[in-house]
Predict the structure of OFA family MFS transporter.
Amino acid sequence: MTVVPEAVSAPSGKAPGLLARERTIAGPRFNRWLVPPAALAIHLCIGMAYGFSVFWLPMSKLVPGAASCESLGFFAQLFATSCNWTVPAVTHIFETFIAMLGISAAIWGGWLERAGPRKAGFIAALCWGGGLVLGGIGVSMHQLWLVFLGCGVLGGVGLGLGYITPVSTLIKWFPDRRGMATGFAIMGFGGGAMIGAPIAVALMAHFTRGDVPGVANTLIVMGIIYYIAMAAGAFGFRVTPNGWAPKGWSAPAASSNKLITQHHVHLNTAWKTPQFWLLWIVLCMNVTAGIGVLAMASPMLQDVFGGRLLGVGTTVALTTVQKAALAASAAGLVGLISLFNSLGRIFWASTSDFIGRKTTYAVFFVLGIVLYCTLPTLGHLGLAAMFVIAVCVIMSMYGGGFSTVPAYLADIFGTQMVGAIHGRLLTAWSVAGVAGPFLIAAVRQAQLDAGVAKSLVYDRTLYILAGLLFIGLIANLLVKPVKEAHHMTPEELARERALQHEAPLVTASAGDAARGSFGVVGIVAWALVGIPFLIGVWIALSKAAALF
């Protein structure tokens, strides 16, 4: 016997709007493998957040012949028009939109569950695309406050909504492969910079006029492109009919894995449980440590190994050509980091479907501690190849932490409100995104001020990051099933589903809901997201070739 939904009508007899959740309930000809490309379309666009560093240096050269604003404080630079912004001032845009990502996801996560992925994804497209356009206008007017408002605040809201939009939908479509499903989408966030950064560099070169970098037009053009791609992804979403399950699949017995609940916990209850805050610590520690290596990897490679990467000693003065080759090697490492950050998301999330979410995070923390503590030794011994391999594995686990946590939340709190709960948990990323870089910079500067050699300043930092991973390990080990008292009652669950405009179930003697063929639409949808992603992989590998 198969369950299919009754027709859903809007209140007062009015037809639901084009963006309404009711309009996205899948019909009998829909194939669930059409949902991941819709999610990827959004995440590949917002993933450009990781590639924003390509703008920092050009944004500090917008007024030819003008002096730097370094004599001004940060807030004075926000309104300065006659001097060039400093690189440290503009880099705070990254911290702003990462902070806004977590804040907006936490605020509007509950609304998203009821509004549905189409409306949330479309608004995310407006905010992220519109934010870049507004930021481009701010650059053209040389008003840094407007750039922060556009790219940082409005763009950050788009990041937050876009990031969590696919999560709940994918988990419900793939109850048999929760990790793999979320891994597909969040892989796109990790890979977005591999595509977006080269496009941004090419556009800036195209729009450059004289000595003025083409940052403004680049941001505007990319904002328009991202809006179109994300809106297309939003309209590609479909939600599962109430009670739908993959053919031949049944929920595992409760006794097989006590951490996977068959019940649901309401958002308002979930964030008050110890399990939520333990997972908050788990994510925050994993992200903080990962950001530390992400920020240090390129300069660390150059400072620690130096001329040894080129076959000359560390005491030999490098020529201009050799310095350029060393910088190319560092850029190659950045390319590898992007690749492993992205592919690690699908690899580790898929692996968690077989070994469990708690075990996967235990691997992250135990293996991470070993690798973080080993990196200084590899540097002292001059083992550059082993150093690069260790950094790539660390970056894969950094990305894997993001993609595994939504499935972890679904296991612990159920699937009904997992998107909203995930939104609240992402405040851990906001904290890590601001505190992580500050911690790394402060420790590094303190050691330099104390006279520590440049090639040794990273050692203590890496040991501190290993300590953070140990805290995450303890928190992960303490995660236990949620008490039954926190589960939603059948009445509460029915009320929540009514707010989401889910139709009551009726039985059908024939026909399977939402089990259509893949078809030409599926091939085209996957090609539209797959080809750009593969091009990004090729570019990353091309850069990485400089290492060898």
In short: The chain has two domains: 30-245, 257-496. The beta strands are 2-5, 505-508.
